[in-house]
Structures are given as structure tokens and as C-alpha cells.
């Protein structure tokens, strides 16, 4: 579904990584780890065509991102749910409308009960009418996950989704990701939360990839 | 047809797209105000163009339809020359009627200068023959040549000498009015482009979020396009209405000299102020859409 072949990326200085390859087949579950600044967020941005590789090839749903028009990129993003590290909400719209935004912009704003169920599941029913700036970091992150999955995407990319939430909520969030994966969706979670990775391994067959020395290596059973 | 439909869907369509962009009070009011001012000016420029156009038409029409033959001759030859002139005129193609001015009318013409008691019959003043032309007019040069041969005392005045500068001036004024209209149109487009670009820049974060969740450029553009089109329309309605009221309040009648009082609209001409607001809306639509799509495409 998403393929990176011999990819390099540089923001203008040195290359963050070079000759990196990664494949996210349907139904896979991956963790992406690495120290802060290693390029996890950058790698995820390559996966949803926010960035284009400086070398190598990125394919999203079989299409080379270099040849994709802005409209094609938009259509591809409707099939990819992304939990951004910095959440990215529309601050003037209430939480419920923010969560439903992927449906709204694709003309499918008939969510109704789905939206309520989803908000209940991430524990934000009470906050549905609040504006994003009024929410805590953890609440914003749960809302970001709800928004990422509301349009039942085929792939879920989550960038440090548990960065701001307590262990209990992290577990629930992980459970939702595992459930989505069981429904056949591919999941890629960037995190440095090793506890979360261990908890996940008990529930799902997950591959753990580590960004290290400009390369992606498969982490062993040492976790 | 498909374009029209797409334009309509950009405008109407999804009020949700509108909500995605936060309302912006101050720039919104500026846009509305400028659209109102431009519509006001446009209605005046239209009124000016239409009035000068009417004036040019009237002058060229009225004056072109009539000319004067002036015969100066010694008293004894006068009747003979008048007869000869009438004969020449009668046989000239394009002349509908030739009528020697009777003494009363000559007196009326001279009265402002010489008073009512002028004994025109006894004075050696020239005899005037009023000529009415047919629609196609006549060949003035040919007529002059014939008159010179047969009626040496006759001078033909076909009014072109003093008609032309008037008609030229009126035509020129009409042209200036149209240029002013074009400038108003271009300024409106420029102003709305600037306002739209300011709005797009101010909403960079909104645009980024919409892109991230899979919105296409036309969806994002729609929010801005709809908003600016409606603002321009609202402003232009107010401006055009005020201008129309102002023009309607002009004193009517020929008293003040015809041109000034003729500045307003006539009959169906009153429809022109109605055309201005939709036109402003179309200009706003095109300008905003172009600005939005250009800005969005520049981001990739
Ligand atoms: N927009 C940017 N421009 C320049 N450098 C950037 C930009 N974004 C990230 N970087 C740099 O790239 C490196 C990797 O960043 P990031 O992908 O966010 O790492 P991680 O998510 O693993 O912490 C960092 O050194 C960061 O400073
Ligand atoms: Mg990061």
C-alpha cells in the first residue's frame, strides 16, 4: 500500500536518511522507533506525501508521489488516517466538527451516530462542543486519533500518539489501533514509548523498525 | 455549460466549506465597502456614458436632418434667385422639403437682437430657405456646385461646421466614460485579489489542516470564493442603489441646459444599475478563485 524504495531525504543540510526502503503491506502493524530527531516524523510525512523524497521512490497505493497532482494527493490522504504529532486542528471549530472534518471535506458528512460513538470511545463526548485550544494535551491527542480513523482509512499513521496521555489512555488507544489492524488496516506507529511496544506485542504481531545511522533496521526481540 | 455548473457549485454548494475558514470581520467590511464605492462610481460612469451617447445621437440626428440656404441678392433679383434655388433643391435627390422662411419667422429669428418691431420686409436681409433632408441625406458638395452655377447669391449651410465638434466632444465623453468603467472594473478585480490574498495568507494554518485531511484545492478555494463573491455582491447592491437614488434625485427638465439634467437614465436605461451588482459578483468570483487556486498551487 505504501512503498519506499531507496529513499533519501534532506531538509537542505545533511541527509536524514539515505537508501531507505520500507513496505507497508495491507494488514501489517509496524512500530517506528528511534531517538528524538532521528527523522520519524519526516519518514511519516513521506508516507502521506507531505514531503517528497530527495532521492529514491515513494509509492502510495501504487502511485509514484512524484507524478501525483495535488488533487491525487488529496484523494490518497482520504485513504490514510494520520495522527499528527502536533495534532493540527481548526481552532475556531468545535471538537466534534474537527473530528468529522475528513468526512466533511470529502462530501460524506453523514456521520451522525458514528461520530458520537467514536467520541464516546475516546472519552470526549462531554468535550464535543469545546474548541480545541480549550482541551488538554491528552484530550487533543485522543481527538486527533478519532479524526484519523473516522473515515475508515486503509492505513493509519500515528506520530507519537501517546506522547501526552496517561498509561490507561495509551492502552485504550493501542487497543483501538489493534482493533483497526484486525479489521485489515495497516498501522504504522512512530513512538519512543517502549512500554507501549511491549504491550502491543502481546496483542498483535508487530514489526519494530528503528531509525539508526540514517538507516532503518529491524529491532530484535531485545525489547 | 459544465463551466457554469461548476461555477454554481463553487458558489452554492457546501456551506461547510465556508465554516472551515474563520470569519474575518474587518477585511470583510473593507471588501464590502470598496465594492459599494466601486459600484457607486460604476453607476455614475454608466449614466455619463449613456447621457453623452444620447446627446451625440440627438445632435447628429437633429442637425443632420436640416440645413439652411441663405440667399443674398439685390432686391430686384431676389425673387428670381429664390425661384431658381427652389428649383435646384426640388431636383436634388435626398431633399424632402425646401421652404422659404416667411417674414414672420425671419422676424422671430432676429427678434432677440433687434426687437419685435423690425421691418424685415424693407431691410436688405438675406432670405433663408429651410431644407429638410431625407434619411439618407444629400450630396452637399454636388449641391454647392450646382447652386454656384445657377444661384450665385446662395450660400448653403449644412451645419456640419458647428455640429462636428459637438458630436466629437460627446463621443469623446462617452469614450471616457467607458474607459472609467473599465478602470473601475479592473480596480475592483485588483482590490478583491489583494483582499483574497490577505485572507489566504491569514488562514495558512486552516489551509494546511484542510489539506492534511484530504481536502482538494477547489474545496478550499470554495470557502474563500463564496465569501468574497457574496461580500462584493452585497456591497455593490448598496453602492449601486445609492448611486441610482442620487441620479433619480437630479432635477429634471431642460431648464438647466439639457446636458446636465439629461445625465440620468431614461426608461429601460434604469436597468443598467441592476446589472452592476451581479457584474461585481462575477468579477469577485473570478478574481478570488484565481487568487485562491494560484496560492494553493504555489504551496506544493
Ligand atoms: N521543516 C524542517 N526544516 C528543517 N529541518 C527540519 C524540519 N523538520 C525537521 N527538521 C529536522 O530534521 C530532523 C528530524 O526531525 P523529525 O523528523 O521531526 O524527527 P523525530 O520525529 O524523529 O523527532 C531534526 O533534526 C529536525 O531538526
Ligand atoms: Mg517527531
Automatic annotation (TrEMBL), chain A:
GO molecular function, one term: ATP binding
ABC transporter domain sequence ranges: 2-223
Keywords: ATP-binding, Nucleotide-binding
InterPro entries attached to this UniProt entry: AAA+_ATPase, ABC_transporter-like_ATP-bd, ABC_transporter-like_CS, ABC_transpr_LolD-like, P-loop_NTPase
Protease is among the record's keywords: no
One term under GO cellular component: plasma membrane
Domain of life: Bacteria
Designated name of the protein: ATP-binding cassette domain-containing protein
Organism expressing this protein natively: Histidinibacterium aquaticum
TrEMBL record, chain B:
Transmembrane segments: 30-51, 175-200, 232-250, 270-292
Xref: Pfam families: FtsX
Top-level taxon of origin: Bacteria
Keywords: Cell cycle, Cell division, Cell membrane, Membrane, Transmembrane, Transmembrane helix
GO CC, any one term: cell division site
Subcellular location as annotated: Cell membrane
Domain ABC3 transporter permease C-terminal: 179-298
Topological relation to the membrane, as annotated: Multi-pass membrane protein
Biological processes annotated in GO: cell division
PANTHER family according to UniProt: CELL DIVISION PROTEIN FTSX (PTHR47755)
Protein's UniProt name: Cell division protein FtsX
Amino acid at each position: 500500500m505504501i512503498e519506499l524504495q531507496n529513499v533519501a531525504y534532506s531538509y537542505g543540510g545533511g541527509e536524514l536518511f539515505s537508501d531507505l526502503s520500507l513496505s507497508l503491506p495491507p494488514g501489517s502493524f509496524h512500530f517506528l522507533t528511534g531517538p528524538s530527531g532521528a527523522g520519524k516524523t519526516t519518514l511519516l510525512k513521506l508516507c502521506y506525501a507531505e514531503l517528497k523524497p530527495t532521492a529514491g521512490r515513494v509509492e502510495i497505493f501504487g502511485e509514484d508521489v512524484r507524478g501525483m497532482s495535488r488533487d491525487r494527493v488529496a484523494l490518497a490522504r482520504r485513504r490514510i488516517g494520520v495522527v499528527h504529532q502536533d495534532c493540527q486542528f481548526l481552532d475556531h471549530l468545535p471538537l466534534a466538527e474537527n473530528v468529522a472534518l475528513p468526512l466533511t471535506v470529502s462530501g460524506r458528512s453523514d456521520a451522525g451516530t458514528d461520530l458520537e460513538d467514536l467520541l464516546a470511545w475516546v472519552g470526549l463526548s462531554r468535550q464535543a462542543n469545546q474548541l480545541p485550544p480549550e482541551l488538554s494535551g491528552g484530550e487533543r491527542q485522543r481527538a486527533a486519533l478519532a479524526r484519523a480513523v473516522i473515515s475508515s482509512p486503509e492505513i493509519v499513521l500515528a506520530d507519537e500518539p501517546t506522547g501526552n496521555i496517561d498509561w490507561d489512555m495509551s492502552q485504550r488507544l493501542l487497543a483501538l489501533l489493534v482493533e483497526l489492524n484486525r479489521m485489515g488496516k495497516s498501522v504504522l506507529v512512530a513512538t519512543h514509548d517502549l512500554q507501549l511496544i511491549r504491550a502491543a506485542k502481546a496483542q498483535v504481531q508487530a514489526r519494530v523498525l528503528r531509525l539508526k545511522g540514517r538507516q532503518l533496521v529491524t529491532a530484535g526481540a531485545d525489547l | 455549460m459544465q463551466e457554469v455548473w461548476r461555477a454554481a457549485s463553487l458558489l452554492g454548494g457546501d456551506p461547510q466549506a465556508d465554516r472551515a475558514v474563520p470569519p474575518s470581520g474587518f477585511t470583510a467590511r473593507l471588501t464590502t465597502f470598496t465594492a459599494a464605492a466601486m459600484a457607486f462610481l460604476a453607476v455614475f460612469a454608466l449614466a455619463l456614458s449613456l447621457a453623452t451617447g444620447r446627446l451625440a445621437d440627438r445632435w447628429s440626428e437633429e442637425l443632420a436632418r436640416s440645413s439652411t440656404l441663405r440667399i443674398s441678392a439685390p432686391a430686384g433679383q431676389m425673387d428670381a434667385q429664390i425661384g431658381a434655388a427652389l428649383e435646384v433643391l426640388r431636383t436634388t435627390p435626398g431633399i424632402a422639403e425646401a421652404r422659404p422662411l416667411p417674414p414672420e419667422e425671419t422676424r422671430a429669428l432676429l427678434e432677440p437682437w433687434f426687437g419685435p418691431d423690425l421691418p424685415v420686409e424693407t431691410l436688405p436681409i438675406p432670405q433663408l430657405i429651410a431644407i429638410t433632408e431625407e434619411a439618407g441625406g444629400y450630396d452637399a458638395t454636388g449641391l454647392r456646385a450646382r447652386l454656384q452655377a445657377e444661384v450665385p447669391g446662395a450660400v448653403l449651410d449644412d451645419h456640419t461646421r458647428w455640429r462636428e465638434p459637438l458630436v466629437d466632444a460627446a463621443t469623446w465623453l462617452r469614450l471616457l466614460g467607458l474607459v472609467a468603467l473599465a478602470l473601475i472594473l479592473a480596480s475592483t478585480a485588483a482590490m478583491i485579489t489583494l483582499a483574497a490574498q490577505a485572507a489566504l495568507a491569514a488562514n495558512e494554518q486552516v489551509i494546511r489542516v484542510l489539506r492534511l485531511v484530504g481536502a482538494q484545492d477547489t474545496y478550499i478555494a470554495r470557502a474563500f470564493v463564496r465569501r468574497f463573491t457574496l461580500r462584493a455582491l452585497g456591497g455593490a447592491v448598496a453602492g449601486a442603489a445609492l448611486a441610482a437614488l442620487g441620479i433619480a434625485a437630479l432635477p429634471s427638465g431642460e431648464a438647466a441646459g439639457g446636458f446636465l439634467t439629461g445625465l440620468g437614465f431614461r426608461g429601460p436605461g434604469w436597468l443598467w444599475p441592476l446589472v452592476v451588482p451581479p457584474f461585481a459578483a462575477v468579477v469577485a468570483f473570478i478574481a478570488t478563485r484565481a487568487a485562491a487556486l494560484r496560492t494553493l498551487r504555489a504551496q506544493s
